[in-house]
Amino acid sequence: MTRPLRIEFNGALYHISSRGNARQAIFLDEKDFADFLRVLCSVIKRYHFILHAYCLMNNHYHLLIETPYGNLSKGMRQLNGLYTQRFNKRHKRVGHLFQGRYKAILVDKDNYLLELCRYVVLNPVRAKIVKDPRDWRWSSYQATINHKGIPCLTTDWILSQFDKERKAASRQYQAFVLSGIKAESPLKAIKGQLFLGQENFIDEIKHLIRGKENLKEISRKQRYVTRPPLNEILKYKDKKTKNQAMYKACLRYGYTLKEIAEYIGVHYTTVSKVIKRIEEGEKK
Question: Residue 105: which residues within 8 A CB-CB, separation 6 or more?
Answer without folding.
Answer: 14, 15, 16, 187, 190, 193, 194, 195, 196
